[in-house]
Write a structure and sequence with these properties.
alpha+beta, TIM Barrel, Rossmann fold, Trefoil (Acidic Fibroblast Growth Factor, subunit A), 4 domains, 6-stranded mixed sheet, 6-stranded antiparallel sheet
């Protein structure tokens, strides 16, 4: 029998407006005395700056002002999972891996270590360094195909908020008055697609905005852990995020000053010369950026001249007042003061020096974080952990077995412990550890001339050319497959990857000189195109291909050097197999006691900034390798090392043990060995739903989780692995949850033979509601470590406000009268205990459409897009089809509605209409208002129509003709 608990919380009208929603507990604290003193210092310095000096501070690269003792300052040190782009530094697991630890205390430690390493360069101040760090990423991982999945924490807003707050608190030092660094969260708002990211608009209906998107970004700001936001490239509801109104959103989440910045080059997208064409001139655009609540322009690299000229033009034309500039500069100075920039000793963090970078303590922390990030997906009949004492021979195979990859936002690895290194070290010098990357080694022979493609033998490589008549080491290339036919070529002569030195520059030549695929353009990508005569063409498929989609390698007639050309010019090659990679891996695995296959992704290739995933499976060559090794050795363990959910349907069915980790930094191999051999019991949990197929997902551009059943909260299908999934080497028993003051209490017992950590997860479900509610919603979690037989009572916080949702009928948070199911367990799909809370909340009244109602506050829709009502602010609904409709459910028309009044715009010529229909989109017609062209999408007019038969309590549908924009309406 399920336990039912009555929570007697009478709903009072006086409390209704106070319901703050899921993030209520993270409200901003009162300003401290130090903050008051700071305000005076800021005003004093602001008053000493000339207008030109103030304008100069608005660009990312703020110049020194010697007369006032101000040093140069730069916004934007990358610090997503370690100090980036400034030389060797500790590299922690990618953010998705940090999230998979479900351990905010650990993540705060990591953030603190990264903050120390950023500070470590303060005495040298190299170019590109600054104390304003661009991390963490708080974008929600609502779709696993997003190219930047590796940068975020989770698909769940609560988990993102907790982890981002922890990381930002570590970065900032935990004292908002004395910042170690000034982190900002990015990218605000609703940016989960890379293809045409600066031109696509994300539709956010109010519930999705308030319940899903905003809480993830809000948490770290409201806790005063983060010091601002970076806006995203995309549009939201038709308005570029670069000019979205932060003053009435982000800046209301805290009483502290925030330093808000644009993303790189985003201001230049706004004018007529840019991709968004939202304003005529850059002056108009930059003025709108400042008025929207941003303070710093990240654009034109180190050149501030365009920004300075545009701001001056905006001032001259009255688009800006000097007070607008002052507001932004005030925010900038506030952060710089708190960073200790104007204190002689640099403040409490001023003595940190370079010795902290890659320190022994940070190495240990990197190993711990990498181990906790590992998720045990499957463990059939105790295949893991491995018993090192019983193993005579271990095969470690796969394309990622003996390498570590970094991503665009990684730091430079100070050292590398690969999976092979870690396993061999754990087994000791006397162990028999064999390895193979499982990739083919080939030679390419020109079918016409007989000349082989030749690489350079030295460390610097050489330009590839057709020269040798016999294949040797310089003619051998290892072929790594990354899926969908994309491969990279590594020269056997020096172990370097083939790519361009100057993508887009002169020459278009290829050299074997890269340690790994890299760069913004990622020029190291090819496809071996099979021809009907048995030869292959070497197609170039690098990102940002400025020469088109059909570009191939050809030998230059003068010297045989390989350059780019058309398909008709391409050299035809005979592919000679020097070594069959799968056969070599199978031979190694067949005689081993255990085979560990390490497969996965290359972060610069398989999804990245500017590129989304189209295929969610393993690369074809890697899947074939796993199948072959599993057939050769039933004791096969597969380690998947990538940055996103993967459709491991065959592997889940056939492989005894599966582990997932992200690209986890320098200590990957040691951490993996720790888990494989049981020195650490796995405790990582998935932060995303792992679907069985991409067919389970709607379009990547569809942002309405509620309507389209996205994420674990709404998805009704069968998943491969549920949100929160992750196995252990021990087992845990849950007691019956019960309500206590401040939350839910449950006893958890370790019933196994090993010490282990369990992430106790609390979910709720509202059983009855006026609107569609999540199937499950994560409300709290706690990671606890238990010895064998140990029991601990875990208290998970749960408040009345946590049960609120956004009521679109009155545009406020509401807790409804309902039974709320409370569930605790090991994952969203493995719930061990339940109870029911009867909450005396509010009954949402029928809609009162006699009042002016915003069209965006609909309950359902078809054939519409959300659009910008006006450029500064406001959302309207735009009809995209001939019979678009909006539902306003349960409207109280008992007084008799006699008249429709609607505020509409219609840019196109011709006549349109707004129809009022009852009960269904094709239900009884109650009235029709005719709309003629208003000449502009932003020129609204009021139209009216008489209504008949609009009575009683029923659903009202507004049916709109294509091209119409509806802002507000009433039925009076």
């Amino acid at each position: 029998m399920k336990r039912r608990t009555m929570i007697a919380i009478p709903f009072a009208a006086a409390l209704a407006g106070a319901v703050a929603g899921p993030a209520a507990a993270l409200g901003a604290p009162a300003a401290s005395p130090a903050a008051a003193r700071l305000a005076g210092r800021v005003e004093e310095l602001l008053g000493k700056l000339t207008l030109d000096e103030k304008i100069s501070l608005l660009h990312q690269w703020q110049p020194a002002i010697p007369r006032l003792g101000m040093k140069a300052f730069r916004t934007g040190t990358e610090a997503l999972h370690g100090l980036s782009w400034l030389g060797p530094a500790t590299v922690f697991p990618q953010a998705i891996g940090l999230g998979s630890t479900w351990n905010p205390e650990l993540i705060e430690e990591v953030g603190s270590a990264v903050g120390d390493e950023v500070r470590g360069l303060q005495h040298e101040r190299p170019a590109g360094w600054g104390l304003n760090v661009w991390a963490p990423v708080t974008q929600l991982l609502r779709d696993p195909r997003w190219g930047r999945n590796e940068e975020g924490y989770s698909e769940d807003p609560h988990l993102v908020g907790v982890m981002a707050t922890a990381y930002a608190k570590g970065l900032s030092g935990g004292d908002p008055d004395h910042l170690k660094t000034a982190p900002l969260v990015k990218h605000y708002l609703a940016n989960n697609n890379e293809v045409r990211r600066d031109q696509t608009s994300s539709d956010l209906r109010p519930r999705v905005l308030k319940e899903y998107e905003e809480p993830a970004h809000k948490a770290a700001i409201a806790a005063d852990a983060a010091c601002g936001v970076m806006t995203a490239y995309n549009l939201v509801n038709g308005r570029p995020c670069t000019v979205t109104d932060l003053n009435n959103s982000v800046r209301t989440w805290t009483d502290r000053a925030l330093l808000n910045v644009t993303d790189a080059w985003a201001p230049n997208n706004l004018p007529a010369s840019g991709s968004q064409k939202y304003f005529d001139t850059l002056a108009e655009a930059d003025a709108a950026i400042l008025k929207a609540g941003l303070d710093s322009f990240t654009t034109d690299d180190t050149d501030p001249s365009k920004t300075i000229a545009a701001i001056n033009e905006a001032l001259d034309k009255g688009l800006l007042a000097e007070s607008d500039v002052d507001t932004a500069v005030r925010h900038i100075l506030d952060i710089r003061f708190r960073l200790g920039e104007f204190d002689e000793d640099g403040g409490p963090h001023g003595r940190i020096d370079k010795s902290v970078i890659d320190s022994p303590a940070h190495r240990r922390l990197a190993r711990k974080a990498a181990a906790e990030a590992i998720v045990l997906l499957k463990n059939e009949r105790g295949a893991l952990p491995l018993d090192a004492r019983a193993l005579r021979k271990v095969a470690v195979v796969g394309p990622l077995a003996d390498t570590l990859y970094t991503d665009w936002y990684s730091g430079e690895l100070p050292y590398r412990v690969t999976p092979l290194d870690g396993i061999a070290k754990r087994l000791g010098a006397g162990a028999d550890v064999v390895s193979s990357e499982g990739v083919d080694r080939i030679a390419l022979k020109n079918a016409s001339t007989g000349a082989y493609v030749t690489a350079g033998a030295g460390a610097a490589g050489a330009a590839l050319k057709e020269s040798a008549t016999e294949p040797g080491a310089t003619e051998h290339f290892d072929v790594f497959g990354w899926g969908q036919g994309v491969v990279t070529l590594r020269a056997a002569a020096n172990g370097k990857v083939v790519g361009m030195r100057d993508p887009g520059g002169s020459g278009n030549q290829f050299f074997n000189d890269q340690a790994q695929p890299n760069g913004w353009f990622v020029s190291q990508l090819f496809s071996l195109q099979e021809q009907s005569d048995g030869t292959v063409l070497l197609k170039y498929v690098g990102y940002e291909n400025w020469l088109g989609d059909n570009v191939y390698l050809r030998a230059r007639a003068a010297d045989g050097v390989l350059v780019l050309g058309s398909a008709a010019e391409a050299s035809r090659y005979t592919r000679e197999i020097v070594r069959d990679g799968i056969k070599e891996a199978v031979a190694a695995a067949r005689t081993a006691d255990t085979a560990v296959v390490v497969v996965g992704s290359m972060p610069f290739i398989n999804s990245r900034e500017t590129d989304d995933r189209e295929d969610m499976g393993l690369a074809e060559t890697q899947a074939a390798l796993v199948k072959a090794v599993r057939a050769a050795n039933p004791k096969t363990v597969v380690v998947v090392e990538n940055s996103y959910p993967t459709t491991l349907t065959w592997e889940q069915e056939h492989v005894p043990a599966l582990l997932w980790t992200t690209h986890a930094g320098q200590e990957t191999g040691n951490a993996l060995a720790d888990v494989l051999f049981g020195d650490v019991s796995p405790s990582g949990k998935l932060t995303q739903t792992w679907y069985r197929s991409e067919d389970d997902l709607p379009s990547l551009l569809e942002y309405d989780n509620i309507k389209f059943d996205r994420t674990y909260q709404y998805f009704k299908g069968e998943v491969l692995y549920p949100f929160g999934h992750g196995l252990s080497y021990t087992s845990f028993r849950y007691g019956k949850p019960r309500a206590v003051r401040g939350g839910i209490e449950v006893a958890v017992t370790n019933t196994g033979r090993r010490t282990g950590a369990e992430v106790v997860q609390l979910y709720t479900r509202q059983r009855t509601s006026r609107v569609k509610q999540p199937l499950k919603k994560l409300q709290a979690f706690r990671k606890v470590t238990l010895k064998p037989g140990q029991t601990r009572t875990v208290t998970l916080p749960l408040s009345r406000d946590d049960l609120a949702h956004w009521d679109v009928t009155r545009s406020r948070w509401v807790v409804e009268e309902s039974a709320y199911e409370v569930m605790v367990g090991s994952s969203s799909g493995d719930l061990r205990g339940r109870t029911t809370l009867e909450v005396r909340g509010e009954t949402v009244p029928a809609r009162d459409l006699s009042r002016t109602t915003r069209a965006e506050n609909f309950d359902d829709y078809a054939g519409v897009r959300l659009v910008d009502e006006a450029k500064p602010r406001g959302t309207a609904v735009g009809a995209e089809s001939a019979r678009a409709w909006l539902l306003f459910a349960d409207a109280d028309l008992r007084g008799g509605a006699r008249r429709l009044t609607a505020r509409v715009a219609k840019e196109s010529s011709g006549e349109g209409a707004v129809e009022v229909r009852l009960g269904a989109p094709d239900g009884r017609l109650a009235g029709r208002a005719t709309v003629t062209s208003t000449g502009s999408r932003y020129a609204y007019t009021e139209v009216t129509a008489s209504l008949s038969g609009a009575s009683r309590r029923q659903d009202v549908y507004l049916v709109l003709t294509e091209g119409l924009r509806l802002a507000t309406f009433s039925l009076s």
